[in-house]
Amino acid sequence: MDDKKEHKEIAFLKDEIKTLKAKISELEDELLDSKQKIYSLEQEISQNLVLENANILIADGNLINQKIFILSMQKSVKSISVAHNGQDAIDKFLSGKFDIIIMDVQTPVIDGVQTAVKIREIEAEQGIDRTPIIAITANASDADREHCLALGIDDYMSAPFQVQTLFGNIKKLLKSSNKKKKIVVFTGAGISKESGIDTFRDKGGVWEQFDFMEVSHIYAWNKNPAKVLSFFNMRRSELKDAQPNDAHCILAELERDFDVTVITQNVDNLHERGGSSKIIHLHGEMTKARSSVNPDLIVDIGYNEIKLGEKAADGSQLRPHVVMFGEPVPLLQTAVDTVKTADIFVIIGTSLNVNPAASLIGYVKDGAPVYLIDPDDVVCYSDKKIIKIQEKATVGTKILKEMLNDLKS
Length: 409
Hints:
alpha/beta, Rossmann fold, six-stranded parallel beta sheet, five-stranded parallel beta sheet, 15 helices, flat
């Protein structure tokens, strides 16, 4: 009887534990959803703050229109300046700093379209940031709109219009120009695999062919630098013939709509060749060499070999500009600080098994969506809500691009 009673108690406790685990799981989901809602509210507040801090230039020769703009907007923005004609708008643009320009197409002296063209020329000549321009006209046709957009005007509105519609367009342009959503992408060997570069830990990967302790450890460099140089010379030679794949190129394309920074564990240059402009190489760069003594004494070598006896400017042996096993990761804190700023975090082609880099996901701010692209079912120990795209990098990045359309600034 005692055994039966004990079994019943154990069964009861197991059910209780199962019920509690289910409740905990539900609470965790509710917490994550709440964090996402808080994040969305913060983004909405951020949009309103952008408008409140905006300096607006109104270019319109009609005094009544000027007064309407001022009365409608003065309580919602930081400052409003008025230009009475196209030339006046150009002069004020040159002497001031504005966050947005609202331009009547039919401004006197120089019409609004030609004024906008001149402003774009000034921006290009002086290398200054682009100021969004909204064109206002009483006669809007699709052809007129396309003409204006082609000449560098950012939006085109037909009068009369609702003030709230104008505010909505201003917010959208201000956020797009001043603060695109920031995507931080963390990539590993999997993204370059489709370019013909072997991964390290997969079946048949580099570390099944070589003992990393003999070719890629600081101990090996100190013991037998010739062997280490031979290994990296071979890897550099293989890189010469590799080409960036669609995944590399799609990440570069995302820069049109987002502020994108790539943090990569890879030592290849395929992100650069794919068109990405902001890249943090955590583990160094294969196409560079550096002093064995001074880590800041770096030179570009392209795809050339490093020979034993080849010296850096300080007289020390040149070595590959890569972080070998047993060495610290100098750019890790830079990567951490970058991840903390991410509105969206993307992981591509990494097993998340290599620390300290794999710990980066822990620095993603609450509520920011996290996307994981990998053909394998990667286990990720994190309290973040992760959206998994279980595909190879070239396919997964295409899916990601579509999913991000709704998250554009």
